[in-house]
Amino acid sequence: MTFALIAVLPYFAARLVRPVTGRPGARIRPRLCDVAHLLMAVGMTTMVWTVRVPAVVWVVVFAPIAVWLAVLAARAPGRLPHGSRAVTAYFAVSMAAMVWMAVPTGHHDPVAGSHHGSSPAAFSFTPLVSLVLGGYLLLTAGWWIGRDMRLTPLWQEPSDAAGPAPRTGARAESICHATMGAVMGLMLLTMV
């Protein structure tokens, strides 16, 4: 998992220095999403290596991002950083999952071999929430792999094929999001 997360870090870091065009609000939203994904990759890496970062740090970082993305997902698609409600909602869920993994909710810590929290009521539904979030993120990792990927080599496609021009970097973006979704999904499933 560590190698997968380290592999996506340069991609999201490089996206921070790429030029973004458009009106000021349209330029800021993609940058904020890139920062959020970079922080998410760093956060997951620290969680995999069980670096003890206080839960409040992750809550302060990821909860506002999750709320911001959820609000954006409810808005018109043309105003979204990735142009899709489904993608923006996926990002909101993944940021909320970061908060879920960080806070002591009565889940089992596979590394420490102990349970966090003390509420039996919290422990009763925690595995279900972790299972649902983990399963969702693993399924969407498969969707990311299929998104924007060519299923046939360029030389097999007709030369007069009409359709939208492929987006630059779409494969790298899909692979990075799939990697992060799969790693986070697996991390959540270990909490069950």
Brief synopsis:
The protein is mainly α. It has helices at 2-15, 24-48, 55-73, 85-102, 120-146, 170-190; strands at residues 108-109, 114-115. Helix 1 (2-15) crosses helix 6, helix 3 (55-73) packs antiparallel against helix 4 (85-102) and helix 5 (120-146) packs antiparallel against helix 6 (170-190).
Structure description:
It is a single chain. The chain has 192 residues and is mainly alpha-helical. The protein is built from six helices and two strands. 65% of the residues lie in helices and 2% in strands. Helix 1 packs antiparallel against helix 2, helix 4 packs parallel to helix 6 and helix 5 packs antiparallel against helix 6. The radius of gyration is 18 Å and the shape is globular. It starts with a helix and ends with a helix.
Which key features would you list for this structure?
mainly alpha, two-stranded antiparallel ribbon, 2 strands
Radius of gyration: 18 Å
- Tell me, what's the shape? globular
Largest sheet, spatial ordering of strands: 1-2
Ends apart, CA distance between termini: 18 Å
